[in-house]
Amino acid sequence: MQLSRFTDYSVRVLLYSAANPERLVTLSEISQFYNISLEHLRKVVHNLGKLEYLKTHRGKKGGMQLNMAPCDINIGELIGKVEGQSALIDCQAQNCNITAMCGLSSALAKANAAFFNELKQYSLHDIIDSGAMRDLINVDDIIACV
Q: Rounded to an integer, what distance in angstroms lies between the CA atom of residue 114 and that of residue 108?
């Protein structure tokens, strides 16, 4: 399975926002930090706002910030909402002649469920609190999880 660039950017936006909890962050600074197209980020941020992961503020002094604590953002749920959890292969749509005797779709469904179940073990805070991220951001500024 490969996640879309849209999902990757969604996680990056949330990480950057979590790393700067004391202020509003802007599209342009995230774009420059990650070297990502500003127009693509607009769509990502709009979606994250609709999903209520971000609070967005318009205007000259506008920007965005997390709408919830990093420990309340479940990575598996986030990716499931952004990426979708459709079947990895749709045997019915292909009118396959061996569907009745083939176990591939069942095996892939179990693998997909295991993938999301593993991701659901992590919050945004868990990812930020990893060793390598400590060097990039000030973890002490991140809202502590209880």
A: 10
Of 123, 120, 126, residue with least CA distance to 72 = 123
CA distances from 109 to 1, 6, 103, 104 (A): 12, 23, 10, 9
C-alpha 57, offset from chain centre: 20
Which 3 state secondary structure label does DSSP give 55?
Answer: strand
Using a 10 angstrom Cβ sphere, with 0-12 exposed, 13-18 middle and 19 or more buried, the burial of residue 76 is middle
Tell me: the pLDDT tens digits for 50-66? 999 999 999 888 999 99
CA contacts within 13 A on the Cβ side of 98: 4
Contact between residue 60 and residue 66 where contact means Cβ atoms under 8 Å apart: no
Complete domains list, the chain, with CATH: 5-84+124-141 (1.10.10.10)
- pTM for the whole structure: 0.83
